[in-house]
Amino acid sequence: MKKGIHPKYMLTVVKCGCGNSFNTRSTVPELKVDICNACHPFYTGKLKFIDAAGRIEKFKTKFGEGGYASLKRGKKEAAETAAAAPAAEA
Length: 90
Hints:
Elements: E1 10-16, E2 21-26, E3 30-33, H1 41-44, H2 55-63, H3 69-72, H4 75-89
Parallel strand pairs: 1-3
Antiparallel strand pairs: 1-2
């Protein structure tokens, strides 16, 4: 290995936004992270659903109660219904 071209590997303090901190090794003396194992929902078991503009409710109403009506009918029935509708209007 060449001398003087490799970064210095040192003890590093990792600080999370939740206040947790721990030591590891890296090429920088301090790392600041937004989320760590002490506050991440996967590790804590406290899952939060972030609902943006009612998307969860929209999904539940669309698929939670049995799905689309067209999925309940067979393909043949759907084609017959679509063909019969223009004849009924005329």
